[in-house]
Amino acid sequence: MNQGIESVSTPDDLVTTNRFYYKVGQHSVLLELELKTEVLMSQTIYPLPFAPDWCKGLANVRSELVPVIDMHKIILGRPASIQTNLLLVHHPKFPPAVLSCDGYPKQVKLTKDDLNLIEENQLPVWLAQRLQYPAERLLVADHGKLLRYIRRNSQ
């Protein structure tokens, strides 16, 4: 007779993952787990002459000049008409970049059932999939592909 403790397994569909997303217009963009992000408060953006249209300018972050990517221009095709928030992004394979967004990142708890990806054909390749979360339509981002595209087209 085994008097050991019976192991209790948790069903896979109850396991949750905490993720963050940011808004650009009506779009909610899910951040990858490997990204390190930081909200920048009251940051001055210095205009850069002859910069590509995606570049709002440069931000001085701890004595390092970092490009500011106008996510409204990237996703919506037009610059933001209002003051936007700034999100510093550290991708493991690229130098830091600052993204403009609407509001601060929000947290979402995703279960295994929420992770059913839907292909999105009308969006750029770095936003090629989405999750239909109950309250939000989350675009699954690959910021590495975005940064690679920007780097190639800026040289």
Give an account of the 3D structure.
Strands 1, 2, 3, 4, 5, 6, 7, 8, 9, 10 and 11 form an 11-stranded mixed beta sheet that branches. The protein contains 2 helices and 11 strands, in the order E-E-E-E-E-E-H-E-E-E-E-E-H. The longest helix is centred in the last third of the chain and has 11 residues, at 143-153. It has helices spanning 71-76, 143-153, and strands at residues 16-24, 27-30, 36-40, 45-46, 55-61, 64-69, 85-90, 97-111, 117-119, 129-132, 137-140. It is mostly beta strands and 155 residues long. The model is unreliable at 1-13 (pLDDT under 50).
Strand and helix layout:
Elements: E1 16-24, E2 27-30, E3 36-40, E4 45-46, E5 55-61, E6 64-69, H1 71-76, E7 85-90, E8 97-111, E9 117-119, E10 129-132, E11 137-140, H2 143-153
Parallel strand pairs: 2-11, 6-8
Antiparallel strand pairs: 1-2, 1-8, 3-7, 4-5, 5-6, 7-8, 9-10, 10-11
